[in-house]
Design a protein that fits this description.
By secondary structure, the protein is an alpha+beta fold. The protein is about 25% helix and about 25% strand. It has three domains: about 250 residues, 3-Layer(aba) Sandwich (Rossmann fold), CATH 3.40.50; about 140 residues, no CATH class; about 170 residues, no CATH class. About 50% of the residues are buried.
C-alpha cells in the first residue's frame, strides 16, 4: 500500500476501545421500551448517540447508566442510537441479533447495573446518523411522542469545536455512512426541528467555544459543554438523570448546573480521576452581549495590530490552551491582552469581553492544574503554523462561514486572519511527515523532538505545536504510527526516534521501517529495516547521554535522524542533528486499557 494512502487510512481511526461489558440478549428483558408513551412529563431528555465509530462500546456503558435511572411519569429519557460491530463484538456479548441498525428507545429502569437490552429498542433501519435530517427527525419525533414542559438535547459523539475537516470530523460521526455533521449543520438540524430546547448538552470533546455557542443562538436557553477533551465515558448519566428525577421541577438553569456538578464530581473522584477536566454552562440570553464585545475586540486588534501583536503572541504562548492548541480560554486570553496594554482601545475592548464571558458562563467546574485557568469558553486564536491552506480544506475559509463571523462590522475571523498573517515571518514551510511500521504485535512508540525543546508521541496526545500524530498503535491495534507536520512550523530540527516499549502477545522483536517525506525531495524515503527488541535495553532517563546518536547502541531505541527547517541566524542553542544537548526526561508510558482511555 502506498504510504500516503496508509496515512489517510489510519487518520480515520484515532482510538480503539479496549472494553468489556455484560450485555443482555437482544430478545431478553431489560431497561428500554420503544412502545410505551409517557405523557404529561416535566422533562423529555433526548440523547442523540452517534456511536457507529470507536466509541461504540462506550455508548453501551452510557445506555446502561441511563437504565440505572430510567424514565418515569415526570421524566422521559429518550434515545436514538447506532453502534458499530467493527469496534464492538456484539456476538461475544450475546448480541447476535443486532446488525448495526439505528434504534430508538424510551429508556426504562432495569435495576441491573450489568445489563443492557438492545432488543427493547425499535429499529428504524440503517439511518445515517451524520445527516442533519436524521437529527432533526429525531428531535421532532421525541417531542411529538413524549411531550413535556421542558426539553433537553444531548449530542453524544466525538467533537472538535467548530472544525469539520476529514481528520477532525466535527460532531456525530457515522463511519458506516462515512459522514459527520459540521457545526452549522448541527445548528441547522436543531433549527429545522422547530422545537425550542431548554438545554443543549454536548457530551463531546472541545465544544465549549464562543463560536459553537453563537451558532445555536435562539435555539436553546442554556448550553453545556467542555473546553477540553472528554474521556470516553463522557457524562455520568446515572447521577445526572437521578438528580433530575429527584427534582423534576428543575429549570433549565438548574439542570445545566446539575450536569456540570455531577460531571465534575465523577471525574474528580479518585476512583475515576482524570487529570484535565472541564465542564461549563452558558446562559444563551447573554450571548448577544458577548458577541457585541467580540466585534469591538476584533476591530481594536485589526485597527492597531502593530501595537497589540506582541501581547497577542505572549497570550498565545502562555495562555490557557487545550488539546487543540488553537483553542485558548477566552476569559484568560482577553485578560492577558487587557493587562498587557494599559490605556489602549484594545484594553478597553478586551475588558468588555472579559466581563461578558463572566456574565455568560453561569456554571464552570475544572479539575487539574493543567486547566486551572479554564473559565468556561474557548476561542479560536491560531498562528500561521496551526492553520491549513490545503486546497481541499482551508481553515480560515471554513471559519469565515460560521454565524459569529457574518456581521457587517469587523468580526473575529478578521482578527484571526490578522494574527495569522502577523505570525508568518516567524515560521517556515513544513509539510513533512514521518511514518514508522513494524512486522509484529510488539508495542513501539514514535517520538518527535520539536524545536521548542519539547518531546511528543502519539500516546501523549495527538496534537503538537507543529503537527499531529496518528493514534497510539497500542490503542488503534495497528503496527503503525506517524507524524504529519503543519504547513508552517517553528524553525529548527525535528529529531525522530523510535522506542521498543514492550513485547506483544506473540512478538518478542520487531523489524522496523522508518519512512519520511520531505517536500524538498518530493518523495517518500525509507530507512531500515532495523531489528529492535529488549535484549540490550537503555534504561536511563536520557540525562547521561550527550546526543541522541548514543541511543543506537541499544536494542530498544533507534534514532533515525532529523529534518531541518531553516534555523534562525541568532539563537541561544545550536540545533543540528546529534548536537543538541539532551535535557528532556521521558516519563513512563501510562497504560489505561479501560473506558477512561477513550476520548470524545
Amino acid at each position: 500500500m502506498e504510504i500516503s494512502s496508509m496515512i489517510r487510512r489510519f487518520c480515520k481511526h484515532l482510538f480503539l476501545p479496549f472494553l468489556c461489558l455484560l450485555v443482555a440478549g437482544c430478545d431478553g428483558g431489560g431497561g428500554s421500551d420503544s412502545n410505551n408513551t409517557v405523557t404529561g412529563a416535566d422533562w423529555t431528555y433526548m440523547v442523540y448517540m452517534g456511536a457507529d465509530n470507536n466509541l461504540s462500546t462506550a455508548g453501551l456503558f452510557d445506555l446502561n447508566e441511563m437504565e440505572t435511572a430510567g424514565s418515569d411519569e415526570k421524566v422521559n429519557i429518550v434515545l436514538q442510537a447506532e453502534f458499530s460491530s467493527f469496534y464492538t463484538d456484539f456476538g461475544a456479548f450475546g448480541q447476535d441479533g443486532y446488525a448495526g441498525e439505528t434504534l430508538r428507545f424510551l429508556v426504562r429502569k432495569d435495576g441491573n447495573p450489568g445489563n443492557v437490552n438492545l432488543g427493547a429498542g425499535k429499529s428504524i433501519g440503517k439511518v445515517d446518523m451524520g445527516s442533519p435530517a436524521a437529527l432533526s427527525d429525531f428531535i421532532k419525533w421525541a417531542a411529538a411522542t413524549y411531550p413535556a414542559e421542558h426539553y433537553a438535547l444531548v449530542i453524544w459523539d466525538h467533537g472538535a469545536g467548530w472544525k469539520k475537516s476529514a481528520l477532525f470530523r466535527g460532531a456525530v460521526q457515522d463511519e458506516t455512512s462515512d459522514s459527520f455533521m459540521s457545526l452549522p449543520e448541527l445548528a441547522g438540524a436543531v433549527r429545522t426541528a422547530g422545537v425550542h430546547l431548554d438545554v443543549i448538552n454536548f457530551d463531546a470533546c472541545l465544544m465549549a467555544m464562543y463560536e459553537v455557542a453563537y451558532e445555536f443562538l435562539g435555539l436553546t436557553d442554556y448550553m453545556v459543554f467542555s473546553e477540553e477533551v472528554e474521556p470516553g465515558e463522557g457524562d455520568p448519566y446515572d447521577t445526572i438523570l437521578s438528580a433530575l428525577k429527584d427534582r423534576p421541577g428543575m429549570t433549565g438553569r438548574e439542570l445545566s448546573d446539575a450536569i456540570v456538578e455531577k460531571y465534575h464530581a465523577y471525574y474528580s473522584d479518585p476512583a475515576n480521576r482524570v487529570d484535565k477536566v472541564t465542564k461549563s454552562a452558558v446562559d444563551m440570553s447573554v450571548l448577544p452581549d458577548l458577541h457585541s464585545a467580540m466585534l469591538k475586540f476584533a476591530d481594536a486588534i485589526v485597527a492597531d495590530y502593530d501595537t497589540v501583536s506582541g501581547v497577542i503572541a505572549q497570550a498565545q504562548a502562555n495562555g490557557q490552551k487545550f488539546e487543540y492548541k488553537t483553542n485558548l480560554d477566552l476569559h484568560d486570553f482577553s485578560s492577558r491582552i487587557a493587562n498587557g496594554l494599559p490605556g489602549s482601545a484594545a484594553r478597553i475592548a478586551a475588558l468588555e469581553v472579559t466581563s461578558a464571558v463572566t456574565k455568560a458562563v453561569v456554571s464552570n467546574r475544572t479539575f487539574g492544574d493543567a486547566v486551572e485557568d479554564a473559565l468556561g469558553l474557548a476561542v479560536f486564536v491560531p498562528s500561521l503554523g496551526q492553520v491549513s491552506s490545503d486546497a481541499l480544506y482551508n481553515d480560515l475559509r471554513d471559519y469565515n462561514l460560521l454565524a459569529c463571523n457574518q456581521a457587517r462590522a469587523t468580526v473575529w475571523s478578521e482578527a484571526v486572519a490578522k494574527i495569522v498573517a502577523g505570525s508568518q515571518e516567524t515560521l517556515h514551510p513544513g509539510g513533512f511527515s514521518f511514518y514508522v511500521s513494524w512486522d509484529t504485535d510488539a508495542d513501539l512508540d514514535l517520538y518527535v523532538w520539536e524545536p521548542n525543546f519539547e518531546i511528543y508521541a502519539p500516546w501523549m496526545g495527538q496534537t503538537t505545536p507543529n503537527g499531529f500524530f496518528s493514534g497510539d498503535s497500542y490503542d488503534v491495534g495497528e503496527s503503525v504510527e506517524y507524524y504529519v507536520s503543519n504547513d508552517y512550523v517553528q524553525p529548527g530540527d525535528y529529531d525522530v526516534f523510535v522506542e521498543y516499549y514492550t513485547d506483544g502477545k506473540s512478538g518478542t522483536f520487531a523489524n522496523v521501517e522508518f519512512w519520511y517525506l520531505d517536500p524538498d525531495a518530493d518523495d517518500w524515503q525509507m530507512i531500515g529495516p532495523v531489528m529492535m527488541d529488549l535484549s540490550n535495553p537503555y534504561l536511563g532517563d536520557f540525562s547521561d547521554i550527550s546526543s541522541l546518536d548514543e541511543l543506537n547502541g541499544y536494542s530498544n531505541y533507534w534514532y533515525a535522524g532529523a529534518l531541518t527547517r531553516a534555523i534562525p541566524e541568532q539563537g541561544t542553542v545550536t540545533i543540528n542533528a546529534g548536537q543538541r544537548k539532551v535535557t528532556f526526561h521521558l516519563t513512563p508510558k501510562k497504560r489505561a486499557p479501560k473506558l477512561n482511555a477513550e476520548v470524545k
